[in-house]
Amino acid sequence: MTNTDQQEFWTEEAGPTWIAQMQTMDRTLAPVLDRLLADAELRDGDSVLDVGCGAGTSTVAAARLTGPQGRACGLDISRSLLDHARAALADAPNVSFVLGDAQTHDFGQDRFDAMISRFGVMFFSDTVAAFSNIARGLRPGARLTFATWGEISENPYFTMPARVAKSIIGAPPKTDPDAPGPFAMRDTRKVVGQLGAAGLRDITASEVALPLTPPGDAQTVADLLCQIGPAHRTLTHFDVGQEDRQRLRAALADALAPYETPQGIRIPALINIFTARTAGGA
């Protein structure tokens, strides 16, 4: 999928779906954003670039950490997500949004002290070119911090729905995990090499075990899994009727039983957290 294809996909298909599930997904991914921002070490007065900002949750969170003298700019390829962000967050202080492809966007004279991304950098057609371009929008010595999904086998949020949907409905065509998509940056050694090739320095990669925290009971989470992710892809590919949809929903709810805790559903995840700096600076 080219970057043009990604723009169309995230504007016409994935964007509206994400907006519909935004509150639930933000709660589900809250531990990831919390860890990302902790590792980003944002300071009062920082200007922050949020790449692949989506509907702006991470952008606003970053702006809060930089105080009244700081600012956060969200950059995304999806017009529908940014339209929602601008409308919903019009009164958020020190927050702005730009429609653009981080791989090719002309940052002009704008320069940022830091770059963050929560699952927004796995979709580039050319990762080295993308980070080289992002670096041109950052000040010398600026810190980059971003989160990606880790190894596929360590992320049951994806593997469990895919397995259950296959057993109930069938298997959709396989996708290439190395192509732009959720798991394109699961190999930390490969990504570290790409960041180095982009001219970045002080590169670190950490594999972090975190819980995903979707709200609601097993039935509620099963509904979510039918609307986003591998189970949704299977439902869409086979264009199934209501009866099979209900069978899948019930099977997903049963499969969530191992993840039920007194605090609610907790799905283990392996998240890669990368940090780096641009050349120059102290």
UniProtKB/TrEMBL annotation:
CDD domains documented for this protein: AdoMet_MTases (cd02440)
Pfam short name (any one): Methyltransf_25
Domain of life (superkingdom): Bacteria
GO molecular function terms listed in the Swiss-Prot or TrEMBL record: methyltransferase activity
Domain Methyltransferase: 48-141
Identification of the protein by name: Methyltransferase domain-containing protein
